Amino acid sequence: MSVAKQACVLGICLLIHVFLFNLVTVSSTGPQFYWYENLTFKALSVYVVTAILGAVVYVISAYIAKLYKQRTGTVEDNKWFFLSLMVLVILTLLLTF
User: Fold this and answer.
1) What gap in Å lies between CA 28 and CA 17, rounded to an integer?
2) How many CA atoms lie within 13 A of 69 on its CB side?
3) pTM of the predicted protein model
4) Does the structure show a pLDDT above 80 at 68?
């Protein structure tokens, strides 16, 4: 499967995961469902942006891994440090805006 198809599947899975994760809260009185809060435009847009950014990070990291493998012939642990820095920068940008 191509990287684009994998990124689409990842984006859909992230969207469903984030939606379901924010839909239900379990407390001592039992589960509480937040249908109205989850179906607002603001909430749905945050879920979509989160899914898109997760897919973009996957595509970028796959591209960097491909370039690294072409240069060195192997995929080593050094690339994970740079990919972690990239994710840290993206998360920092998300949290500041």
Assistant:
1) 23
2) 7
3) 0.70
4) no
Domain that holds residue 61: 3-96
Task: Return the HEC string of the chain.
Answer: CCHHHHHHHHHHHHHHHHHHHHHEEEECCEEEECHHHHCCHHHHHHHHHHHHHHHHHHHHHHHHHHHHHHHHCCCCCHHHHHHHHHHHHHHHHHHHC
Q: How far, in Å, CA of 63 to CA of 70, rounded?
A: 11
**pLDDT at res. 41:** 93
Number of structural domains in the chain: 1
Contact status, residue 87 vs residue 57, Cβ threshold 8 Å:
yes
Q: Which of 5, 91, 19, 7 is nearest to 48 (CA)?
A: 19
Residue 10 one-letter amino acid: L
